[in-house]
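Example noted here:
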Amino acid sequence: MYTSQFQTLVDVIRERSNISDRGIRFIESDKNETVVSYRQLFEEAQGYLGYLQHIGIQPKQEIVFQIQENKSFVVAFWACILGGMIPVPVSIGEDDDHKLKVWRIWNILNHPFLIASEKVLDKIKKYAAEHDLQDFHHQLNEKSDIIQDQTYDYPASFYEPGANELAFIQFSSGSTGDPKGVMLTHHNLIHNTCAIGNALAVHSRDSFLSWMPLTHDMGLIACHLVPFITGINQNLMPTELFIRRPILWMKKAHEHKASILSSPNFGYNYFLKFLKNEPDWDLSHIKVIANGAEPILPELCDEFLKRCAAFNLKRSAILNVYGLAEASVGAAFSKLGKEFVPVYLHRDHLNLGERAVNVSKEDQNCASFVEVGRPIDYCQLRI
């Protein structure tokens, strides 16, 4: 059982810096992959922290992330953690709504600074100039920096946070108004990631594979911090690559023998649309595909499992879960190693205070749900 052996994320990366035979595989395409050990990651994060300190970034300053490349994102994230700076991951998109969200978040923060990929920063500045956000445009010129695909080598000094100090801020979608930031402390994150490790029965032989964006709590906390804290291998695949070539999700799981995967409901449906005559994959090593972050359709779970049975994927692989940013990420998990349990209820008896009515799945008034299990460690549920 994983317990809170660490007090802060700084403790975690320092301890993991001793590991040179495990780490992160960054999958950029079918043929292009880069493996970075946890020791290498610590060294690169330390160098980039030195650079941030060199350009004047201070502890407890909020750092807005608009970083497209997974490796650069991870290095910058851990550099900020080591320096006591506050990462603020924000989703990247081509439409104006995403750029408006960056502006809204910028106005909420106290002393923001933006780190971005070059093309992304250019587009945000262009948006600000075209939408009469002159003050924002001026601030971006003074309080932003482009992260380069290079190794930074600057001397750094580490910050020693307390367990209850802020580690980073996770923002909601903010699609209908001002986005809301969830303040996550080191204490929050250490305990929730350990609880997820317990719920998944993570073993030293396990490895994670994720295409979820690192700006999302499921992508960053569940699929990056959990394997980091438990000290096992992880494989990170850009979301854009999954969108272009969804078949690579299971192809890479087969190649690298990944045992713990995750996806929202959308991902299963999208993958199946492209699943044709595939090579002779063996997915028998997959013990968990965590299914959460969106409403879950039991019919889709069943279809996915049936079609992947040809690749020896176990019926018990899909693990339906529930989470929310306010709980860091994980709140309730189904039982490991058991087949998912569908729930069919009468759609006209789902109002607050009403008693739910079970129906058959053939009933014309049937609304389909799934069981999402029990609260995980350090999490209580009140109904």
In short: The CA atoms of residues 182 and 253 lie 32 Å apart. The longest strand covers residues 166-171. The mean pLDDT is 94.
